[in-house]
Design brief:
about 250 residues, alpha+beta, Jelly Rolls, Arc Repressor Mutant, subunit A, 2 domains, three-stranded antiparallel sheet, DNA binding, cNMP-bd_dom, HTH_CRP, transcription regulation
Length: about 250
């Protein structure tokens, strides 16, 4: 943890966030996202906690970062959802981050965040000092391996989704997006066939590169085919296998 007698580096780093209170890693439901399961109950836990700057809550609509934020922290989403938007063209939604996702990986190389990160609902994040984490990874090979595997999986999921968004039909894009969110919930141990979307249809259509009208027509079409059931933001996947098969079909 940060030295209580020195200024908290997070205070000037993300001014809109409010300290929720100290929380031990041992009490965190996402512990196994950070440490291998075999090491979670060992004496390595206090060592890992030394890299944690704290847990913070942020309300819906608030920015995680200021315009001039320099990279020094990685963020683990503990609960809630965020969207990343282009600072120049705010209609360009670049990514969504869900519980268990890491925010800030793209800023490591240039030590600068290019995107605005906005909470879609009241969310909680864990801030991790990157330099302290790097030192920890260099000393503990098992933790390093686990961390690399975690970011690799997150990157792979994004690549698969963007491959469909780049070349798929509107129906395939929508199906891929719903399955992507379903997979996020499944990994968190939540019901993965029934979901309440934290983002509105405008954000979804911008992210998928389709018009709001096309998104609405596609959701209606999938509903008529009894592949999904939609009520406002609640979506139920009625035929998961058929939706998955749709992604591999030629347009």
């Amino acid at each position: 943890m940060a030295d209580k007698h020195s200024p908290d580096p997070v205070e000037n780093y993300i001014s809109l966030m409010r300290l929720r209170g100290e929380s031990k890693c041992s009490e965190c439901a996402l512990l196994n996202r950070c440490l291998p399961r075999s090491l979670a109950d060992t004496n390595l836990l206090p060592i890992f906690e030394s890299a944690v700057s704290g847990n913070f809550a942020i309300d819906a609509g608030e920015d995680l970062l200021s315009d001039e934020t320099k990279f020094s922290l990685l963020f683990i989403v503990k609960s809630g959802t965020f969207k990343a938007i282009n600072r120049i063209n705010e209609a360009n939604i670049q990514a969504f981050y869900f519980s268990g996702n890491l925010i800030g990986l793209e800023a490591i190389g240039q030590r600068q965040f290019d995107s605005r990160i906005i909470a879609l609902e009241r969310s909680v994040i864990c801030a991790v000092d990157y330099d302290k984490l790097l030192d920890l990874l260099n000393r503990l090979n098992q933790v390093k391996k686990h961390f690399i595997e975690t970011i690799s999986l997150q990157h792979l999921e994004s690549l698969r989704l963007f491959a469909i968004i780049r070349s798929g039909s509107v129906q395939q894009r929508v199906a891929a997006f719903l399955l992507f969110i379903s997979e996020q919930q499944k990994r968190r141990g939540q019901a993965f066939l029934d979901m309440v979307l934290p983002m509105g249809r405008t954000d979804i259509s911008n992210f998928l590169g389709v018009s709001p009208e096309s998104l609405s027509r596609t959701l209606t079409s999938l509903s008529k085919k009894r592949l999904i059931k939609v009520f406002n933001r609640r979506v139920t996947l009625m035929n998961y296998d058929a939706l998955s098969k749709m992604l591999s079909e030629a347009d």
